[in-house]
Amino acid sequence: MAERRHIADAAMPSVVMEGFAVVYHAASGATHLLASPVPEILAAIAPDRGAATLDEIVARLRADYDMDGGDAADVAAVVAERLDELTVSGLVRAA
């Protein structure tokens, strides 16, 4: 069985304000204030980058941001937790 792939909701404009990403999710009508690393995770699976597995998301984050010294397993655990939360909120879906 293939790993689950995730993608950000395509209709999700956002604005950065005082260190938070303010995201209006049109499908639910809800506005979310997101702190790091959530905006970075959403950027890693934005529609222009395509869906990705957990391992692919971690690799994209490592390529995009200076993550020297961070254990890949620790990063993957944090990303997995945030993906679960994002899925429940409707900001991320299985591809």
From TrEMBL:
Name the record gives this protein: HPr-rel-A system PqqD family peptide chaperone
Provenance organism: Sphingomonas arantia
Domain of life: Bacteria
NCBIfam families per the UniProt record, alphabetical: PqqD_rel_X
InterPro entries membership: PqqD-rel_X
